[in-house]
Amino acid sequence: MVLARLILGLLCLSPMTGYELKKHFDSSINHFWNADKAQIYRTLAQLVDKGYATVRTVAQSNYPDRQEHHITETGRAALAQWLSAGAVQSPERDPFMGQVFFAAELERDDIQSLLEERRQATQFILDDYLSQREGIDMRAAADRRSFLMAATLDHAIRQQAAELEWLDAVLEYLP
Amino acid sequence: MVLARLILGLLCLSPMTGYELKKHFDSSINHFWNADKAQIYRTLAQLVDKGYATVRTVAQSNYPDRQEHHITETGRAALAQWLSAGAVQSPERDPFMGQVFFAAELERDDIQSLLEERRQATQFILDDYLSQREGIDMRAAADRRSFLMAATLDHAIRQQAAELEWLDAVLEYLP
DNA sequence: GCAAAGTGGGTGCAAAATCAACTATTTATG
DNA sequence: CATAAATAGTTGATTTTGCACCCACTTTGC
Predict the structure, then answer these.
(1) Which chain B residues touch A93 with a CB distance below 8 Å?
(2) CB of A54 within 8 Å of any CB in chain B?
(3) Helices in A25-173 by DSSP H: which ranges?
(4) Among A22, A135, B67, B90, which residue is least crowded by beta carbons within 10 Å?
(5) DSSP string, A24-66
(6) Where does residue B59 rank: exposed (0-12), middle (13-18), buried (19+ CB within 10 A)?
(7) pLDDT over 90 (residue A106)
(8) What residues of B are in contact with residue A154 (Cβ under 8 Å)?
(9) Residue A38 CA to nucleotide C13 C1', Å?
(10) Could you report how far apart the first and last alpha carbons of chain B are, in Å?
């Protein structure tokens, strides 16, 4: 459901192949969603099925044919309806917090290692987001679309930063 | 997989029925995980199947029999192994950020409503976490297990607080 | 010259998760 | 007194997701 909407959103920006969609997920969307390509191709087929998108096969000289997917008016309406239906809520879900919750089964040193390992990974992700952020032209962010897209990246940055602060606090006060 | 570990963790604290597990998920674990009861009962059956837990039927005078699940040594080992295998990483996944990312399809006022609605919901969740936090006896938190459990709640509180700050910033600067 | 990576698409399968019922009894609540 | 909520567990169907493959061709790097 969510994936279908996100794909519609991307197709709304420009017609795309499944391959290109996957690249968008990996590069610009990855801070709040990602999907396996198998899932993307299947969802794409469903969208065509429901009439939310149409396919146009475009031959290329060297590379394989492009199955270019175009959003339809119905598709645009479905996207708009999702956005208008109100803010979606989704349950928190973080396996790592589960590890922390039950980490008392480990020795103190192992708990510390667990937290430090996470700290490293979080720092790595944060750095990645920060470098993505640098690539954004802020002159263009006066335009609302660019502003909102950049905002979701800022959200991810704040979340990771908050996680780092939390990890440091836990590491400091761990009994 | 994660759910199985979390259930093992809970059974590690004390033997429980599926019904009680569900209540724990709804009350104390909900800030980082939750699960449908159907899923809990099925996972419980799998744990018994694998020898990670055993069932003991306890008759009650008034209420239905309790299917009390006890963790086994193998189960304890499996839990410890999960914790020792290192910090798990999980992809970010937030449908609401998808709405924001594509919100430019809406009018400015509708975008604002979307953000304000989310702000309300976030405040509500934060308040819930804060009241849960009040119920925690900090004298007991010198003990490592209680400290870690409280820490995961603190994490959730920080995350929600960061979300509120972000929402306010976006609402302020939205072009 | 050969291997790896990129372009573009797809299938099959299994595990995980969600939704919606349905069974029964007991204890509160209006 | 009726109705709802709590206790305890189960089944079926469907969706979502993830993993591991497979095809075929082209371009790039060593």
Answers:
(1) 32-34, 90, 93
(2) no
(3) 37-50, 73-84, 95-101, 108-134, 144-173
(4) A135
(5) HIIIIITTT----HHHHHHHHHHHHHHTSEEEEEE--SSSPPE
(6) exposed
(7) yes
(8) 166, 169
(9) 13
(10) 44
- Judge whether A135 is closer than 8 Å to chain B, CB to CB: no
pLDDT in tens, A2-25: 999 999 999 999 999 999 999 999
Q: Can you list the pairs that B138-144 forms with residues at least 24 positions away whose Cβ atoms lie under 8 Å?
A: B142/A175, B143/A175, B144/A104, B144/A108, B144/A111, B144/A174, B144/A175
**For the residues of B28-44, what is the DSSP string, one character each?**
IITTT----HHHHHHHH
The pLDDT tens digits for B109-144 are 999 999 999 999 999 999 999 999 998 877 767 799
CA separation for the pair A96, A161 (Å, rounded): 16
Q: Which of B73, B148, B149 to mutate to test the interface with A (most CBs of A within 10 A)?
A: B148
Place of tokens 């987001």: A129
Cα distance between residue A115 and residue A138, in whole Å: 35
